[in-house]
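Weekly sync notes, structure subgroup
Attendees: PM, AL, DS (notes)

Item 1: joint prediction request from the bench team. They want all two components modeled as one assembly rather than separately. Inputs as received:
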Amino acid sequence: DAKTTQPTSMDCAEGRAANLPCNHSTISGNEYVYWYRQIHSQGPQYIIHGLKNNETNEMASLIITEDRKSSTLILPHATLRDTAVYYCIVRVAGTNDYKLSFGAGTTVTVRA
Amino acid sequence: EAGVTQFPSHSVIEKGQTVTLRCDPISGHDNLYWYRRVMGKEIKFLLHFVKESKQDESGMPNNRFLAERTGGTYSTLKVQPAELEDSGVYFCASSQVRTRGTDTQYFGPGTRLTVL
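Output from the run, pasted for the record:
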């Protein structure tokens, strides 16, 4: 799977949008971009995933650049409960390799 | 719908003892995964079951770790004998069989293992 690069940490203000960048410049055509987060002492939580098109669900939006070399996770109205480590993961599809490769992620702190 | 559950939530054992962790996946999920995070390190994949069969056990650290999934429902992960470096948080995840080429894994709360 392609590797990803994320900032180590970022702060955002409560109520504002949080934009989390991820670089995956070596991504290939059959690789999906997944986002998970881990709130302290809990298991990783699935947020969203996409292949080429932008995606939105009740938690977040995922914006993938046209060349697919980077993406941005958007939390539209960050709350204190969104403080967590956010992981951008690239996964190949159509093979028997199912495992998720977690990196160090981005530690997001939402401040009141 | 109940999520992935894990038991126990915490376990403290002496070096050399045996510990068995249990994971109950979401009902109907044929894929079951074990991951772990040891102190200061990233979350790492251990193995993957499809129903009762081991699909990928490339992440299992050594033969002191034994995972089973009899009947394709819940899974157990046994560590025997436990060593100090086995301390960490063990996560289980489950997913449905892939559709459109990919699956979404849902994680349990983890079991925190401390080996003294």
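Discussion: The radius of gyration of chain A is 13 Å.
Action: AL to compare against the crosslinking data before next sync.
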